[in-house]
Q: What sequence folds into this?
């Protein structure tokens, strides 16, 4: 993917206007202006790279503590202060999530039949609409509901409480 410099130089008459800086990048931009531009680009690149590193460090710290570094999954709610939130069972939704797992474990329900049944008993997604078949399948396959966290291909032991009765292959 070409950068802005390449795009501007590729064809005569192209310009990029930076209103806040009162700067125009075009084929006639002077050497010292290009130097300033290059320095701003380097600083912006450093800022985004550093921010990415800090976010990843924060995510790893949260995982090491046993918590998932994202919004609460269906059946859970977030509690705590900003940047220190954990997830606890949502008393209103967790019993329905557990029911979904129990019904599926009988072998008597396809994903579609399970979605239809759970919709009838009131299980909805975060937007208040019917669960999709793919979301339902993801939930049934997600080790989170067994007390584990799957993050970037690695498993972590979670501190969150699984819905009562949902077990992983380790009997947890």
A:
């Amino acid at each position: 993917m070409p950068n802005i410099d390449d795009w501007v130089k590729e064809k005569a008459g192209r310009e990029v206007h930076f209103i806040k800086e009162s700067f125009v990048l075009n084929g006639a931009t002077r050497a010292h202006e290009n130097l300033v531009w290059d320095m701003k680009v380097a600083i912006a690149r450093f800022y985004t790279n550093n921010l990415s590193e800090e976010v990843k460090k924060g995510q790893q710290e949260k995982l090491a503590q046993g918590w998932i570094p994202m919004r609460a999954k269906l059946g859970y709610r977030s509690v705590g202060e900003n940047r220190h939130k954990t997830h606890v069972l949502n008393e209103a939704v967790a019993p329905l999530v557990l029911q979904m797992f129990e019904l599926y474990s009988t072998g008597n329900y396809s994903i579609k039949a399970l979605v239809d049944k759970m919709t009838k008993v009131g299980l909805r997604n975060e937007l208040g609409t019917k669960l999709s078949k793919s979301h339902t399948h993801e939930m049934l396959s997600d080790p989170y509901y067994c007390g584990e966290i799957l993050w970037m291909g690695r498993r972590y032991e979670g501190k969150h409480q699984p819905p009562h009765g949902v077990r992983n292959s380790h009997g947890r």
About this structure: Residues 4-64 form one domain. The beta strands are 15-18, 23-26, 76-79, 86-89, 148-151, 154-157.
